[in-house]
From TrEMBL:
Signal peptide, first to last residue: 1-19
Protein family: Belongs to the Skp family.
Pfam families: OmpH (PF03938)
Domain of life: Bacteria
Protein name as it appears in the record: OmpH family outer membrane protein
Length: 341
């Protein structure tokens, strides 16, 4: 009842205040935000592992007590009154111990609650800090937690800032691992996002700018591809010219296997190039030898070169032999002169 009265009082206050100025109200869903935080998921996973271990220990203790009870039931007729009482006291003590252990682990002030608070409180504190920053930046008058004990009878989706808080929280965690340059870029992006959310007209302008930028980049890319294609064509032509020169120099012939259409295209390209070198090649191509004559000429030139090399090698050998003979005679004369002296 108190909660309902508080909400009604708040609505009444907001309505009255709105006549004087615009009251800005927002809300978050803490459970939703925590589920989106990786650190929270890790903390819950660690806590769940501990809880499972404690539950296993409790089950073991329960099994021991159950076994003792079954043994007492079976052996009761064989035991004395004193032994029966002793067994019952032992069972009662173990049951009391089990309850105390359950309270210690899973009670209102147990280890599960304490450790959950230790693991999750730093994350919650970080979220509260971000919520306060958001409230100051966006000029909120009130921000509520939908998942808290405060009952919200109705909440419009447009006032939910949970996703925005998650984004700010993620960015805050990333900042710790970023360089100054990366931080500056991130801050610029956040400022842009803030402007977009606050000003719909800015969003439309930004969309137009992005479209123009994309069109410009596409045009530049098309020009780059066209330039690369031109360079590739020019390189191919140069390569062809060099091959034809080498063929004529060596007395060989490159057979023309291109179709008439290819010849026309080649001639048209040469006209566009306006290269004197291309015209000379076209002119000389009409004077080429036949394949048989070209091969015969090549063989003759090779034989001539081999004869010249052979002759040069023989002359070199002869010269070396003469130099050795002269050196030998000079050495003998020197030896004779030394013997005479």
């Amino acid at each position: 009842m108190k909660k309902l009265l508080f909400i009604l009082a708040l609505i009444s206050f907001s309505t009255q205040a709105q006549t004087a100025k615009g009251v800005k109200i927002g809300y978050i869903d803490m459970e939703y935000i925590l589920e989106k935080v990786p650190d929270y998921a890790d903390a819950i996973n660690q806590l769940e592992q501990k809880a499972q271990k404690w539950k296993q220990e409790i089950e073991v203790k329960k099994a021991e007590i159950t076994k003792l009870k079954e043994n007492l039931k079976t052996e009761r007729v064989l035991l004395t009154k004193e032994l029966i009482e002793e067994r019952e006291e032992e069972i009662a003590y173990l049951e009391k111990e089990l309850l105390e252990y359950q309270e210690k682990r899973f009670g209102p002030k147990g280890d599960l609650i304490i450790q959950k608070s230790v693991l999750i409180k730093p994350i919650q504190d970080q979220i509260f800090t971000i919520v306060q920053d958001v409230a100051e930046q966006r000029k909120y008058d009130f921000i509520f937690d939908k998942s808290s004990d405060l009952t919200m009878l109705f909440a419009a989706q447009k006032y939910d800032i949970s996703d925005y808080v998650v984004k700010k929280l993620t960015a805050s965690q990333k900042r710790e691992e970023m360089s100054k340059k990366q931080l500056k870029a991130l801050e610029a992006k956040e400022a842009l996002d803030e402007a977009v959310e606050e000003n719909p007209a800015f969003t439309e302008r930004q969309r137009i700018l992005d479209e123009k930028k994309a069109a410009r980049e596409k045009l530049l890319e098309e020009r780059r591809i066209a330039n690369e294609q031109k360079k590739a064509d020019a390189a191919e032509k140069r390569k062809k010219l060099l091959e034809e020169r080498d063929a004529k120099k060596n007395g060989t012939v490159i057979e023309n296997k291109t179709s008439e259409g290819d010849k026309d295209e080649k001639t048209e390209d040469k006209k566009e190039e306006g290269s004197k070198q291309d015209k000379e090649i076209v002119k000389e191509e009409t004077k080429k030898l036949s394949p048989e004559e070209a091969r015969q000429k090549l063989i003759e030139e090779r034989n001539k070169k081999l004869e010249e090399r052979k002759k040069a090698l023989e002359e070199k050998k002869k010269k070396i032999a003469e130099e050795r003979e002269a050196a030998k005679k000079a050495k003998e004369q020197k030896t004779e002169t030394e013997n005479k002296n």
